[in-house]
């Protein structure tokens, strides 16, 4: 614990107090302050000027990161018949219907994403208490309820991420690994930011993106200059 504290303090000391870094500067600093013992995940957090309690201000979507996330997502698919066979061929880690639904209902959540065909959503919907709190419930808005689960599996494993504003109006998303090149991370961040800005609710008041930080696993948050996103 002491070693972690010293490492964190050393990393935090490299962040200039009161300074807001451009995305490219934040990326360079994140790579510098990331752990040297493992390949840290790089994440971005934004504070939005929305009220998530209002349905018309719920910011939720997906984006295909140009360079992926650096992690091969574990994807399960609720499907049967030809759709199940296609999903398995596309690389789904587990495919099934009633038995898989029962397995998840019992508390199994060792996966990163869940996809379902529309005809099974009546049964999958009962998994809300298990999947909902973890952000794993299939949803048409994120392309995870689809008659073509194979395509969804390919997209997710290829670097597609989904994001959703939380009850405090914050949105968090992964943009890659510290081992990525700076240009790769910058392009991933820009792709995600562009999509979040595109989804700005018309009813949102004031500056839409209020704050932003870039960080690595166990690393300090690096304040990001979001003035260019003040739409």
Which percent band covers the strand fraction? 15-25%
* Biggest sheet architecture: 4 strands, antiparallel
Q: How much helix is in the residues?
A: 25-40%
State the end-to-end distance. Answer: 42 Å
- Radius of gyration, whole Å: 19 Å
**Widest sheet, order of strands:** 7-1-8-9
Mean pLDDT: 90
Structural class: alpha/beta
What string, H for helix and E for strand, traces the elements in order? HHEEEHEHEHHHEEHEE
The stretches of 5 or more residues where confidence is low (pLDDT under 50) are: none
Individual helix count? 8
Number of strands: 9
Overall shape: it is: globular
Explain how this protein is built.
With 231 residues, this protein is an alpha/beta fold. It is built from 8 helices and 9 strands. The chain has helices at residues 2-12, 23-33, 81-89, 98-105, 121-124, 128-131, 149-157, 182-198; strands at 41-48, 60-64, 75-78, 94-96, 113-116, 160-164, 170-177, 209-216, 222-223. The strands form 3 sheets. A 4-stranded antiparallel β-sheet has the order 7-1-8-9. Helix 3 links the parallel strand 3 and strand 4 (94-96). Helix 2 (23-33) crosses helix 8 (182-198) and helix 3 runs parallel beside helix 7.
């Amino acid at each position: 614990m002491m070693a972690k504290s010293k490492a964190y303090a050393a990393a935090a000391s490299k962040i200039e107090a009161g300074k807001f870094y451009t995305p490219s500067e934040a990326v360079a600093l994140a790579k510098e302050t990331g752990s040297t013992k493992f390949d840290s995940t790089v994440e971005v957090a934004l504070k939005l000027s929305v009220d998530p309690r209002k349905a018309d201000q719920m910011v939720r979507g997906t984006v295909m990161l140009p360079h992926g996330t650096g992690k091969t997502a574990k994807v399960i698919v609720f499907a049967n018949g030809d759709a199940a066979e296609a999903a398995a061929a596309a690389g789904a880690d587990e495919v099934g219907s009633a038995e898989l639904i029962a397995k998840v209902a019992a508390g199994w959540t060792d996966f990163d994403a869940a996809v379902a065909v529309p005809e099974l959503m009546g049964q999958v919907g009962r998994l809300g208490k298990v999947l909902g709190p973890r952000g794993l419930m299939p949803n048409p808005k994120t392309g995870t309820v689809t008659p073509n689960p194979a395509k969804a599996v390919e997209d997710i494993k290829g670097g597609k991420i989904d994001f959703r504003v939380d009850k405090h109006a914050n949105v968090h998303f992964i943009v890659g690994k510290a081992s990525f090149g700076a240009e790769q991370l910058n392009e991933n961040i820009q792709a995600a930011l562009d999509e979040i800005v595109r989804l700005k609710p018309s009813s949102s008041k004031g500056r839409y993106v209020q704050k932003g930080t870039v960080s690595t696993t166990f690393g300090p948050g690096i304040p990001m200059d979001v003035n260019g996103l003040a739409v």
